Amino acid sequence: MRVDVDPETVGRREFYALLNSVVVPRPIAWVSSRSADGVLNLAPHSFFTVSCVTPPMVQFTSVGRKDSLNNVEATGEFVVNFAAEPLYEQVNASGTNFPPEISEFEAIGVTTEPSRTVSVPRVAESPVAIECTLHTTLELGDCTVVIGQVRHIALDAAVMDGDHPEVTRLRPLARLGKDEWTTLGEIRSISRIRHSDWPGHFTPPGS
């Protein structure tokens, strides 16, 4: 038995909450930006992913018109700072609806660090920073998708294992539904099966 939900017959907030509860877990783009007046902004966006490999691009979605969107459109730059478990309280606090003239960096007590390729600073306490210039924005209903071209990635050496970051050192945060967050649970590794090797290590149900 299933529960059927039609977006045309329920309210926006109710359906938004339902989507947030089933599209899980969601990585968090902790976006730093600067307004046209020079005020720094820092905000979490949990509609976030990679957009393109070559050239490298990432995207986040502004639900409604937020300061992050206004700032990126005004300056053409932003940084995606990695939302790590030790920064849980600060990431959540940066989602407070401060007025545009207040900098979340100062309000929540995190440190700025100069970026290498953009004028917007990074969060010094974050283990990874993805520096971006604006590629394009796409308006979809009441939201705007912001796509940035990656110009530089800065990683804390402490999270590295050889040439790649190690996920248990990164300790990523993710959003769930309601006011729920999560961290790493069980980590599993499984290789993709080439057609020439089929079925390989896959065992079909009932076999």
Automatic annotation (TrEMBL):
It comes from the Bacteria. Keywords: Flavoprotein, FMN. Residues 21-175 form the Flavin reductase like domain. One of its GO terms (molecular function) is oxidoreductase activity, acting on the CH-NH group of donors, NAD or NADP as acceptor. It comes from Kribbella kalugense. The lineage of its organism: Bacteria, Bacillati, Actinomycetota, Actinomycetes, Propionibacteriales. Its cofactor is FMN. The keyword Ribosomal protein does not apply. Belongs to the flavoredoxin family. The keyword Cytoplasm does not apply. It holds the Pfam family Flavin_Reduct. This is Flavin reductase (DIM6/NTAB) family NADH-FMN oxidoreductase RutF.
